[in-house]
Recover the amino acids of this structure.
């Protein structure tokens, strides 16, 4: 507590010496909100911390830092125009304009049709992160649509031809530019190149390529592409409207009509193609740029909601899912995600109601029932979950490897409901379909070890699971516990210490390591490992077991174990 007060007063002193122009109370509150990923609250406080229209020379550096932070927050929350307003005012104070602020100004220029200004600004952008490939493609589209210069636009996009990692993206936009200029044969060549650049082409790429094939008379080629996507994705729903239209011989419209369409397409393509945990915020900003140009772009809306889920913003994601039209091909997907988010938010009743409704709407689909079963299982309603999983499985004409997760989920429900034979059958069937699924190898191997059966095979399964997932603490723990059960305590300690290093706060793993230390007569270490396990709030059954171990130790040991 004293340390916290010291930090507070140091910060207080620091900001008093900057300038009274900065409201350091609001600044600190804004930083705290930012640490919690509460961007809207951070914006409220930081807007009050510094006045963009009243920047003092003495506090200029700190004012500008706050304004740059605000600009990034506006981009993350889709308030692009507010970032533009800040960017235009602080530009003159900055020795060098940050990349994201400069990109925002380019987007504003394009939207306001100030194309020469936009092209001039692209020369100043540092090719960091996504900008190394977004900037040349932005330039290519401006040159194509507004300057009507096909040759130069292709030359510009081909500045990226040595960047092999983005060939799929480059080929796609060369195809789209060719299509815009009614060069259908060239467009189709590059669509095929783009498709061949990915092991699993996205729905959007398949939709765009198929659209072009249809309009250039290559109907069978389009149909083959759609059917392959339906088979590979094991879900016909997304592509169903394309197949229905093709069968009715209705020729689709071109997807890119203007520069706003092109920009929306580009930014969603980049955001989806290169998204990862590390780049999630970049992907959010890029998707917001897409929606800045085309605010009803459903692919962008769906993508934004999924990215927000990665930030644990489930309520906000659900608000976006509500914007998806009931007639949209994305509506089913949006409602499934909404139900999942409702359960995460603790609104189990509404989630269950929605999934029950959906399961009656489309009786040829099992995904709503699978999620419903998962929710019931999470709430330990195992008997009900099993019935729902059975209903889901009954809707599948032929079980294949794509259904392994459904069988695995039912197996877990059976195991928790003390129906081991049925559970074991499901787990073995899953491994027959997907022999290298580490999660299932681990679950079945660990269960066998706990039951004292099939010990050799269990050990083999757990070693294989470890080879597949060497950094998964639960897989490593299972192998360590197998060694413990086999009385190989040296290997047990080695693996369980590794498991604890991978997940230091799991009560079960810490308890297991304490047991292994006990067998190696490392008494003090065992005691303190169990104490740690208790600190991490184990379930009641395990809590009582650990408390009994501690009680026996303190009773029988000559060492004083009191706190």
């Amino acid at each position: 507590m004293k340390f916290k007060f010291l930090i507070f007063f140091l910060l207080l002193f620091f900001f008093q010496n900057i300038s009274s122009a900065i409201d350091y109370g609001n600044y600190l509150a804004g930083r705290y909100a930012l640490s919690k990923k509460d961007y809207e609250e951070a914006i409220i406080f930081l807007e009050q911390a510094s006045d963009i229209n009243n920047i003092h020379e003495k506090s200029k550096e700190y004012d500008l830092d706050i304004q740059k932070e605000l600009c990034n927050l506006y981009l993350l929350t889709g308030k692009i125009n507010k970032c533009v307003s800040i960017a235009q005012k602080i530009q003159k104070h900055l020795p060098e304009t940050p990349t994201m602020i400069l990109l925002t100004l380019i987007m504003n220029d394009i939207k306001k049709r100030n194309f020469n200004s936009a092209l001039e600004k692209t020369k100043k952008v540092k090719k960091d992160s996504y900008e190394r490939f977004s900037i040349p493609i932005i330039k290519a589209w401006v040159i194509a649509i507004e300057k009507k210069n096909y040759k130069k636009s292709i030359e510009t996009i081909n500045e990226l031809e040595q960047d092999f990692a983005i060939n799929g993206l480059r080929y796609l936009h060369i195809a789209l530019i060719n299509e815009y200029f009614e060069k259908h044969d060239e467009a189709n060549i590059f669509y095929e190149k783009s498709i061949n650049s990915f092991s699993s082409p996205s729905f959007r790429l398949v939709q765009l390529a198929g659209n072009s094939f249809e309009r250039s008379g290559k109907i069978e080629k389009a149909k083959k592409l759609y059917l392959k996507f339906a088979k590979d994705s094991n879900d016909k729903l997304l592509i169903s409207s394309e197949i229905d239209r093709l069968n009715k011989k209705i020729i689709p419209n071109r997807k890119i009509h203007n520069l706003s369409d092109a920009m929306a397409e580009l930014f969603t393509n980049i955001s989806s193609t290169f998204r990862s945990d590390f780049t999630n915020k970049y992907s959010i900003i890029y998707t917001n740029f897409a929606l800045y140009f085309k605010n009803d772009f459903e692919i962008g809306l769906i993508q934004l909601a999924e990215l927000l889920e990665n930030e644990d913003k489930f309520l906000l994601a659900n608000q976006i899912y509500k914007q998806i039209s009931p007639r949209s091909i994305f509506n089913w997907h949006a409602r499934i995600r909404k139900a999942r988010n409702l359960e995460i938010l603790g609104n189990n009743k509404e989630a269950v109601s929605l999934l029950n409704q959906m399961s009656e709407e489309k009786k040829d689909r099992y995904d709503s029932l699978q999620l419903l079963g998962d929710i019931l299982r999470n709430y330990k309603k195992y008997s009900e979950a099993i019935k729902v999983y059975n209903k889901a499985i009954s809707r599948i004409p032929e079980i294949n490897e794509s259904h392994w997760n459904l069988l695995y989920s039912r197996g877990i429900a059976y195991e928790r409901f003390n129906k081991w034979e049925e559970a074991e059958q499901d787990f073995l069937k899953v491994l027959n379909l997907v022999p290298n699924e580490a999660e299932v190898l681990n679950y079945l191997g660990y269960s066998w070890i706990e039951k004292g059966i099939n010990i050799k095979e269990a050990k083999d399964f757990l070693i294989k699971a470890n080879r597949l997932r060497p950094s998964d603490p639960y897989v490593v723990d299972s192998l360590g516990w197998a060694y413990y059960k086999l009385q190989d305590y040296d290997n047990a300690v080695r693996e369980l210490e590794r498991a604890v290093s991978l997940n230091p706060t799991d009560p079960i793993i810490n308890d297991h390591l304490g047991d292994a230390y006990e067998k190696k007569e490392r008494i003090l270490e065992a005691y303190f490992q169990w104490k740690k396990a208790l600190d991490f709030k184990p379930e009641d059954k395990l809590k009582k077991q650990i408390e009994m171990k501690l009680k026996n130790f303190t009773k029988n040991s000559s060492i004083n174990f009191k706190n």
The radius of gyration is 29 Å. Residues 60-76 form the longest helix (17 residues). The domain at 1-95 is CATH 1.25.40 (Serine Threonine Protein Phosphatase 5, Tetratricopeptide repeat).
